[in-house]
Q: What sequence folds into this?
């Protein structure tokens, strides 16, 4: 709930920056990604639906912040490029990457909707498997289609590790996702003020989430191989 989160940040005097790395093309509470938080950061790495083969972009309606970010991406130089006025980086997008980004940005809806069709087909063929669940999408929201997630619960015929191994034996790639959860990652373990937190919903996703093969251009035959392998691992005998 970005509106509620924004209110908490306003009351605490904390800037809200949204990590929207996978979010190009998504809709949040009826609004397109990029217009939801004061600052949103997007990735355009090769694994994203809308890619520039590297780099990313930042969306903000704050003109002063936008000007500062433009300086920071070019060594902190002034607008005329003659002087260094701030600490900055060499973070300019090359013309080559910008051209790829421009072409793919024009295809956002096409790329996203193709993935929606693939996701619907996965759901159609896997929804009857005991203990298997899919990500819920709230009313007014639309994901970007970056990943296809399957959640393998305790009622499933096999646990996630067993499914991964079974798929590997069928030459189907998959990997645990949302794993490890942010609050369990090693970098935070010894930080001053760090504490063990109990986050049951997060930890369930951490334990059960599995990312399936999912890409634009995926054929029915390729998807059927994944579906058949998953059913071989998770379907009850005789199903």
A:
């Amino acid at each position: 709930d970005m509106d509620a989160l924004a209110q908490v940040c306003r009351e605490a005097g904390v800037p809200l920056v949204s990590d929207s790395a996978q979010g190009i093309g998504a809709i949040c509470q009826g609004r397109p990604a990029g217009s939801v938080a004061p600052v949103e950061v997007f990735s355009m790495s090769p694994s994203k639906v809308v890619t520039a083969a590297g780099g990313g972009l930042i969306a903000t309606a704050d003109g002063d912040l936008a000007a500062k970010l433009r300086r920071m991406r070019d060594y902190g130089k002034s607008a005329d490029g003659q002087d260094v006025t701030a600490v900055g980086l060499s973070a300019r997008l090359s013309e080559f990457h910008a051209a790829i980004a421009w072409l793919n940005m024009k295809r956002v809806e096409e790329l996203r909707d193709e993935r929606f069709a693939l996701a619907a087909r996965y759901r159609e063929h896997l929804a009857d498997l005991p203990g298997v669940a899919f990500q819920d999408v709230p009313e007014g929201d639309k994901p970007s289609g970056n990943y296809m997630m399957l959640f393998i619960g305790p009622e499933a015929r096999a646990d996630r590790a067993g499914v991964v191994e079974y798929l590997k034996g069928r030459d189907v790639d998959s990997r645990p996702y949302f794993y490890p959860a942010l609050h369990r990652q090693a970098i935070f373990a010894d930080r001053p003020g760090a504490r063990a937190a109990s986050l049951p919903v997060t930890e369930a996703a951490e334990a059960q989430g599995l990312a399936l093969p999912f890409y634009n251009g995926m054929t029915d035959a390729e998807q059927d191989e994944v579906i058949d392998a998953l059913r071989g691992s998770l379907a009850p005998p005789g199903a």
